[in-house]
Amino acid sequence: MKNNPLVASEKKFLFGKTTKIVIAEGDGIGPEIMKATLRILKEAKANIETETIEIGEQVYLSGNSAGISDAAWEAISKNSVILKAPITTPQGKGYKSLNVTLRKSLGLFANVRPVSTLHPYVKTHFPNMDVVVIRENEEDLYAGIEHRQTDDVVQCLKLITRPGCEKIVRYAFEYAKAYNRKKVTCMVKDNIMKLTDGLFHTVFKEIAAEYPEIESNSQIIDIGSAKLATVPEEYDVIVTSNLYGDIISDIVAEIGGSVGMAGSANIGRKVAMFEAIHGSAPDIAGQKIANPSGLLNAAILMLAHIGQTEVADTIKNAWLTTLEDGIHTGDIYQSEISKKLVGTEEFADAVIERLGKTPKNLPASTLSKGTGKIEIPNYKRKEATKQLVGVDVFIDWKGEDPEIIGEGLTKINSHNLKLKMITNRGVKVFPEGLKETYCTDHWRCRFVSNTSNTDTKEPKYTSVEYEQVIALLSKLFQNGYDVIKTENLYEFDGQRGFSLGQGE
Ligand code: NAD
């Protein structure tokens, strides 16, 4: 680890508080693009002081399976802002993804990826696109809780939490306010996942109401992604959960024509990490031809995040002017538009020469026009009255006829817990299922106590004691059923906290 006085040495020209930044130079083209980026930051008089840490390939190969040393962790814990160049994860099993480790360990809950097209200077089909994808970064299917339960069936748990939704949705609206954005679109699939995506959507509507000055709307993720890929100019800020965000942020980068150009931010309550979206490009490493724009844009996001929005605008405008002037690295060079083919260092020189200029055709950067400040309040839980009303018992059964397992389980009337229905892969197969439904060896059997009304859509459930569930499981075991898991069925403040079976 070394202290790098590169930028701090200019302190005498600077105002305000110097922010310490942890620098990770990365692998492949990482050191080249980092050097170019830091040179631009220094010349623009960014008020930062840097400390370099070692992470990535060499650390992995030294036997550290996480790719990050204890000394690097210590530097990160002392200084809460990281500018990271791409790293190479060695091939082979046993190496953990450093990005996932950093994201999860540091609570970097928001992934922010702005992409705006630079037509005609960078090729794109969408000249007027300017989109920011804000992706929840910590939960959803990425919690990584997976189980094999039967010969045929594996499962991955999708966990969506209210604090997770509140944090990311609040961040999206605060981001819109801080960076002068006009609209926030929520993308979910709550027509199918009524509880998980439904919670995300509910929280979105609650929080959107607090920001009447910002337009808000919601779309189902499938049509939303399709529209994004065809009319991206209709979007401004998009907020979504982890998996959908992973997919749409790549769509946005790809259609923007700028995989080598975009930066991204991973934001936590305490720590924030900024990086280019591209990888370490080993195919061109050491050739001094890499485009430093992705990392430079990440650094611009970083400056805005630490409140140096004016320096961020100055650098962004100089960068836009450089592109307008046709000074292009090989990855974006087009003979009909480009004027000069340059390498990494010459590109940085060109940006430095243009500090203070604003672009003539491309929209100028306006980061300093917003509030420049994002604060996320601490979560306050609202406790609900929780009542157990039944249990879903998942059974590994190799038969094919739902009537057989259904009739067998109907006879197991244990302490007033009775079979209500059986589903197979979510579809009701007993009682009165369709013969056509394909059944695997994974049967979800719903047991509830007597319900006091005959409306099967929304019956009134009666409360159940946990001892009844345990007695039921014992009885199932004694009767030879292979119980693979259970899910308790609860009502919260009288509202059903579980989905109905398809066809129930
Ligand atoms: P890549 O993004 O490194 O390269 C894809 C293509 O884009 C290559 O042809 C490359 O030359 C080009 N390219 C990328 N950045 C460029 C730039 N700034 N200027 C000019 N051309 C550029 O993707 P990859 O080849 O799939 O991955 C290479 C390595 O990077 C792998 O080890 C991967 O694990 C790693 N990676 C790291 C990160 C990260 O650290 N955040 C992200 C993605 C991939």
From TrEMBL:
Co-factor requirement: Mg(2+); Mn(2+)
Organism: Maribacter algicola
EC number: 1.1.1.42
Gene Ontology biological process terms in this record: glyoxylate cycle; isocitrate metabolic process; tricarboxylic acid cycle
Keywords linked to the UniProt accession: Glyoxylate bypass, Magnesium, Manganese, Metal-binding, NADP, Oxidoreductase, Tricarboxylic acid cycle
EC category: oxidoreductase
Name of the protein described by the UniProt record: Isocitrate dehydrogenase [NADP]
Location of the Isopropylmalate dehydrogenase-like domain: 20-351
Pfam families: Iso_dh, Isocitrate_DH_C_bact
InterPro entries per the UniProt record, alphabetical: IsoCit/isopropylmalate_DH_CS (IPR019818), Isocitrate_DH_bac-typ (IPR014273), Isocitrate_DH_TT1725_C (IPR040978), Isocitrate_DH_TT1725_C_sf (IPR046997), IsoPropMal-DH-like_dom (IPR024084)
